[in-house]
Request: fold
Amino acid sequence: MAVRTPDPDPADRDDDGARRGNPLGAGSFSSPAPRNAANPGWLSDVELAEARRRLPILYVEAVPVRTDGMGQVTQVGVLLRATPLGEITRSIVSGRVRYGETVRDALFRHLENDLGPMAFPLLPPQPVPFTVAEYFPMPGLTAFHDDRQHAVSLAFVVPVTGTCEPRQDALEVTWMSPEEAASDTLAAEMEGGRSTLVRQALASVGALR
Amino acid sequence: MAVRTPDPDPADRDDDGARRGNPLGAGSFSSPAPRNAANPGWLSDVELAEARRRLPILYVEAVPVRTDGMGQVTQVGVLLRATPLGEITRSIVSGRVRYGETVRDALFRHLENDLGPMAFPLLPPQPVPFTVAEYFPMPGLTAFHDDRQHAVSLAFVVPVTGTCEPRQDALEVTWMSPEEAASDTLAAEMEGGRSTLVRQALASVGALR
Amino acid sequence: MAVRTPDPDPADRDDDGARRGNPLGAGSFSSPAPRNAANPGWLSDVELAEARRRLPILYVEAVPVRTDGMGQVTQVGVLLRATPLGEITRSIVSGRVRYGETVRDALFRHLENDLGPMAFPLLPPQPVPFTVAEYFPMPGLTAFHDDRQHAVSLAFVVPVTGTCEPRQDALEVTWMSPEEAASDTLAAEMEGGRSTLVRQALASVGALR
Amino acid sequence: MAVRTPDPDPADRDDDGARRGNPLGAGSFSSPAPRNAANPGWLSDVELAEARRRLPILYVEAVPVRTDGMGQVTQVGVLLRATPLGEITRSIVSGRVRYGETVRDALFRHLENDLGPMAFPLLPPQPVPFTVAEYFPMPGLTAFHDDRQHAVSLAFVVPVTGTCEPRQDALEVTWMSPEEAASDTLAAEMEGGRSTLVRQALASVGALR
Reply:
């Protein structure tokens, strides 16, 4: 695979802070979005790069799934994504939690960015992720690796009930069976340990054999 | 409160085995329901009573909830129920898992029995309950008590999206805030430790203060 | 592999009910063990066989692990077991919960039976298993299969700090790396879906790649 | 109670970065600690204050418990702590995760800081917290509040087997029953929502009534 690790957060353009808004405790209860000048949570590219060298960055990740009428997972949604370097890679929904944003709001925002506004994700009532994935810039410390930063990611399985129309740099959502999603073939197309994350997601819903 | 413990499973009339059907591995994958004669999982009242004196009986329980668009729990559904002795008590969805029935199918069956066919419950993708409640005939061993049997219950939080029209002996579903559901006032109206179960359910979704 | 499914519970000789004792709510708080005559939870072979045809039977299972000083799983213990038919198979700790016995006490009893009295298992404070495994007599309904019965198993990861000296029909405990424990090679030596259970156990502790 | 929210992290003096060391992926696998100059994860007071206004800060928290031989929680450890303003408050183990540090290492470091080197905590094999607590500077958004920052905390129940001798500003560890730990009396002595966290911890181990 590619030498460069994937960008786990290409949708998270911080310069859209003012456009999509993120006041303190924002999200669904949001009041009008503040201007950049008023929002200390907005970070310039330089500032974000600096923060990434100094602090663990909080992420959320989601493995989108389809379920049958009984709640059993039948399919897993995998994103086809173009990295900033133009490589094509398989990934899942992933992005940074902003200052003042709840984990739940960040999860919803990144689901919408990556799956489109008609995906109708069903966020779980529980605040607890199926795993906590720790990405380090130096490979080998954990199963996860991100050469840009030390990121700690809360990873969730999220049933999706609508139609997925990826926006931004997620090119396509491919729905596959749990077996395919756990296969070595798919693993070879995922980077940074995302294949491990998908397998752990499947295990958490009893769909890993 | 009443001296007799509640019947945690009044809806679970085993003589309806043939009517509602429960072949091996039934539920959503069900083939036509067998007759009693052909279904070893059907138990007469005498046989069930005997089993209850000899084996731990597997139960499922569900705390129905309403969630907002972000998955956060906003309301808890509590059943008003008449016990076989004619007492009125507060309870949650509860019932036995039958021979050959999956936990998921049992959960769905009891939700439908207690909340009606239009409740549209969203069963969780995860097979893991928020707690395992152990009911003993002798009070005080655990927080849970059932003078009829030793029951081990897998308890789930289940978001409900439709309209609840209780059937059988569940008289009514009352929707209340998490605060009310966790209150001592409500606890005094619940038996067998169900108030503990509701509080643990609330804690599992981050809604217990 | 063998055509017959493994006996998931060979240590659970119910005729030892009086010897090892199992009064109501017994275990560590146990008063003197009752005689068979006085203990309705004691089942003859015929009675147990009958129950297994009529009710789901509650089981506990444990994947024994070694952890480093930071709690991270470093090794997985797999049992070498002789089935009643004399076949050698790989398995994990497994057994029935008896009438009047807590899940915790059953877990401890089976750990001691299978790993010996010097294993010093550290039972988790949480009552929630990493998965609920549903074994059906008919294969293919779930990942799990047991031709003797419909068993529902609460499965736990249990760190073991002492020395394992298997008793009864568990011949040996083999300690292996998480990678070996998740391998297809080991899976081929396990029956009834136990390899799936081991992989789900590893996923739950972040040790599945 | 006091008008000022508690300092959830008084032990986390960042100027001790060089002393206690925190190289990338440090902890148990640590190479010699780098000097401040070489460690971008070291933050001056000014830099940390700035980061706290711009990014959610990742925390770990631990509710120390004593368990019986069967893993059941019997006691909860609550810290008596002096805030920077000299107020006495009740709290739990809490602190920041540093750049390059695993969650597990951060948990261990803060347990050692607050309970002393002879506490012998048993870190759980699972990476998943019992809850994710979100602290916002503005009160009321969640159950948790910290006027210094937006902190996201992974909260764990940690059995402690040794002797606790608090260091730094944790004055004392008080062991109390689950009932006392969940009481309104104790809640009145805790700040920032820590009483909610303790109740959720108790619920997760089946010890909340």
Helices of chain A lie at 17-20, 45-52, 103-115, 178-181, 184-188, 194-204. Residues 2 and 87 of chain A are 8 Å apart (CA to CA). Chain A touches chain C through twelve residues (CB under 8 Å).
